[in-house]
Design brief:
disordered N terminus, binds ligand C2E, single chain, binds magnesium ion, alpha/beta, five-stranded parallel sheet
């Protein structure tokens, strides 16, 4: 709140000290620049502050005084909404007292015996200037709805606490309300605001009981940076109960993510981690509290490491492509019909890393195309090597990431790989996961259609894990459905899965596309699929993904079988 001051009059300073000699000394120094009033104890000081609230620019406050000492004055001022922004410089001879006063909200201190007049004037002038600036910005400093700090200011203060109060062990807490946008949509913005204000109030109440600061980062995301504590379940219930009390009709569910204080971890990182913890329990109504733990930390550190190492990995050729065969099982003897290229990372220190550990990470960072480009090129070169060596081309499929599908250069990139290697388009098949289709169906359909027009064959990967409707499916330009592994796993003893598999086989027949069953590990799974009419099978039953020199043996075996077949 801005305190209006009369213009042109010199700024008013209150000097509070029980010793007349000190009051006089300060009076002499300050009177050249300011109008000065005096109090000789705390009680008098508070009285004058209230009386001159509007004109007063600053208070110089002695700590050791009879009747009411300086600490008590500070506490009273900071708890008084009308006075709390009034800057106070404490006068003290005691180093420990200084720190305590600063923690209690004093703006600065002047040591006794007094410094040179010039220094005192400079300090007083600087604090007045700062506090005026502060008041101007305090409007932007607070979120008007909850009166908590805005995000920028929150981090500004959090960083200061982190840098200058290292002895305070501060935890980072993030609060989110589940599906808050639908609370707004269903019950109106006013009700939404009411909810946010209530939570803000409760946070403010909480902060009166402990040391700390809080912010509404945005919408329904709140952050609290406060002294370390152990009773998080209780704190969460406290906030939850406050929301429960707002309405008996609306279900408001709050989630809390916490990152417990750790030395040298900056506030920004602490809140990122608290948010990551909070995100982990999104939609999980059994768990509303998640504390960031070592496992999450290790995962984060590993991810960071992998991101850092990516460039070197590409330059040094650490990515290798393995091949897993797909067999046609409708012939009397299964025949090798194609393969899937699956990437692995041979990390010089971490050993072999499987794509499940880095593909999703690089996908979320938009870096996966670097890896995919390499895999596609290498796969094309491998097809050519085998063709040249054995006079036989085995089609191989490569995986496309979700982000590849939205890359405008995708078609050109793939076309030039095929042309540069003098392949036919159908020899490099493309696997696109079902969930890519559902993201932005129209755009994906357009890209896929154009790829098919070129002559690429498209396999829909992980079919059954996404949510394509039958309606959508009939419009989809695809050549092959790859049934998700989860249907195969319990095929032998789960009736539902068996029925689902037979349903998928029917759908494929209706769409006139072939089906690949992935993750086939046993003979009985294979038999069920064969009798159900499934065309192609990929899985450990036949072979794990193999490095090219191992895969080549399967190729040779297949060629031998075929030439034998021709002889007979
Ligand atoms: P996906 O495309 O669904 O690939 C099939 C995964 O199933 C492979 O895991 C394969 O090793 C595994 N698998 C095959 N048969 C069996 C089996 O009988 N039992 C079991 N339990 N698993 C089997 P992998 O190689 O770890 O790859 C995981 C995923 O990573 C792939 O799933 C694919 O989505 C992605 N990926 C792999 N290579 C690439 C790539 O070059 N680019 C992109 N964007 N993604 C890739
Ligand atoms: Mg695949």
């Amino acid at each position: 709140m801005l305190r209006t001051k009369q213009i042109q009059r010199p700024e008013l300073v209150l000097v509070v000290d029980d010793h007349e000699i000190n009051r006089d000394a300060l009076g002499v120094i300050l009177e050249s620049d300011y109008e000065v009033i005096f109090a000789k104890n705390g009680e008098e000081a508070l009285e004058l502050m209230r009386k001159h609230q509007k004109e007063l620019s600053i208070v110089l406050l002695d700590l050791m005084m009879p009747v009411m000492n300086g600490y008590e004055v500070l506490t009273a001022v900071k708890n008084d909404p009308e006075l709390k922004d009034l800057p106070i410089i404490v006068l003290t001879a005691d180093k420990d007292a200084e720190l305590q006063a600063l923690e209690m909200g004093a703006a600065d201190f002047i040591t006794k015996p007094f410094d040179l007049p010039g220094i005192i004037l400079a300090r007083v002038g600087r604090i007045i200037e700062l506090s005026e600036g502060r008041q101007l910005i305090s409007a932007a400093e607070n979120d008007p709805l909850t009166m908590l700090y805005s995000k920028n200011f929150f981090y500004e203060y959090a960083n200061r606490l982190f840098l200058y109060h290292r002895d305070m062990h501060l935890d980072a807490i993030v609060l989110n309300i589940d599906k808050f946008h639908s609370v707004n949509a269903l019950h109106g913005r006013d009700f939404g605001d009411h909810v946010l204000r209530a939570l803000g109030d409760e946070i403010n109440l909480f902060l009166r009981e402990t040391q700390g600061i809080a912010s509404r980062f945005e919408a329904d995301r709140f952050g609290i940076y406060c002294l370390h504590r152990e009773d998080y379940p209780r704190l969460l219930s406290r906030f939850q109960e406050r929301l429960n009390a707002l309405s008996s009709d609306v279900n408001l569910h709050i989630r809390m993510g916490v990152n417990v204080w750790q030395e040298e971890v900056t506030p920004v990182l602490m809140f990122d981690r608290a948010q990551a913890a909070c995100n982990m329990i999104r939609g999980d109504f059994q768990n509303s509290l998640k504390i960031y733990n070592d496992e999450m930390l290790n995962k984060e550190l590993l991810n960071q490491r992998l991101l850092n190492d990516l460039r070197a990995a590409v330059e040094e050729g650490q990515f290798v492509v393995y091949y897993q065969p797909k067999y046609n099982i409708q012939n009397d003897v299964p025949t090798l019909s194609s393969a899937e290229a699956l990437v692995r990372w041979k990390h010089p220190e971490l050993g072999m890393i499987s794509p499940g550990d880095f593909v999703p990470l690089f996908e979320s960072n938009g870096l996966i195309s670097v890896v995919d480009n390499y895999v596609w090129n290498e796969t094309a070169r491998q097809i050519v090597r085998w063709r040249d060596k054995y006079g036989f081309t085995l089609p191989v499929s490569v995986n496309l990431s979700r982000s590849d599908v939205f890359d405008p250069s995708l078609i050109d990139r793939l076309v030039s790989i095929v042309e540069d290697n003098k392949l036919e388009y159908r020899q490099l098949k493309l696997e696109v996961t079902e969930s890519s289709y559902t993201d932005n169906a129209l755009q994906v359909l357009d890209v896929i259609r154009r790829l098919r027009e070129k002559g690429f064959e498209i396999e829909m990967d992980d079919f059954g894990s996404g949510y394509s409707s039958l309606n959508m499916l009939s419009d989809m330009p695809i050549d092959v459905l790859k049934m998700d592994m989860k249907f195969i796993r319990n095929l032998e003893n789960n009736d539902t899965d068996r029925r689902l598999v037979s349903l998928i086989l029917d759908i494929a027949k209706y769409l006139n596309v072939a089906v690949v069953a992935e993750g086939v590990e046993t003979r009985s799974q294979l038999n069920i699929l064969r009798f159900g009419g499934c065309d192609l099978v990929q899985g450990y039953y036949f072979s794990r993904p193999l490095p090219p020199e191992e895969f080549e043996k399967l190729l040779v075996l297949e060629l031998q079988k075929r030439s034998k077949g021709r002889e007979e």
